[in-house]
Amino acid sequence: MKTFQHVTFVLLLIFAGMASAFAGISIDSSRIIFQSSDDARGRSVGVTSSVSSVAPYLVRAQVSRDIEGNNVQTPFITTPSLFRLEPGSTNQVLVVKKPGADGLAKDRESLFYFRSVAMPAGEKQSASPSSVVGGSLQVSTATVVKLFYRPGGLALPQQQAMGMLQFSSTGQGLRVTNPTPYYITLADLKVAGVRVPLSAVAGNTMIAPFGAQLYARAPHQGRVEWKAINDYGGTEVFHGSVR
């Protein structure tokens, strides 16, 4: 049951743009890069209600360690964490690192998730994704983007790191190794002209710093072309070969 719930939530995350359209809520970035230089002043994130929204929303903003928002014990706080958003308006949420917060790696990026959970205003908000109020079902919609904490002094820039993936053939499939301190997210991957299935549900689109990802259904030799997502949400193309 837990696995089914996780897959269901990831599917909702994939269609976050569609869900946002229904809820009328969007976030101004497809990903958030929190630099160590932001520790003192924080990082501002815009949360916007569409002009086509027919009602205001009550929005809860938070940073979590997991996509579902079950673990919100993080080194970050959001202010305001709860606010009313009128149709066609934008509210700036400040993500701030807690004073004296420890536990963040200094030699690689750390991954968190910024969540904005919207519910029609005027109704009592609950922790569950839906609740029954006044005889009607009120559904809250979560819009989620990745938040990367990036320490200072990393050995190379993120753009260079995207092109440094290493590809090797193993008995279990194609192994893609990330030798860099950055999270590398793939938008597309082809080996010998054959597209390798990538899926957020399968959890194989992102390769952790100094980590690896195994693709069982991929050719084991040939030229490789991949598209990686940069800091601005765009993609850049790189080429290599299986060794």
UniProtKB/TrEMBL annotation:
Its main location: periplasm. InterPro entries: Ig-like_fold, PapD-like_sf, Periplasmic_pilus_chap, Pili_assmbl_chap_C_dom_sf, Pili_assmbl_chaperone_bac, Pili_assmbl_chaperone_C, Pili_assmbl_chaperone_N. Keywords: Chaperone, Periplasm, Signal. The keyword Chaperone applies. Belongs to the periplasmic pilus chaperone family. PANTHER family: FIMBRIAL CHAPERONE YADV-RELATED, PILUS ASSEMBLY CHAPERONE. This is Molecular chaperone.
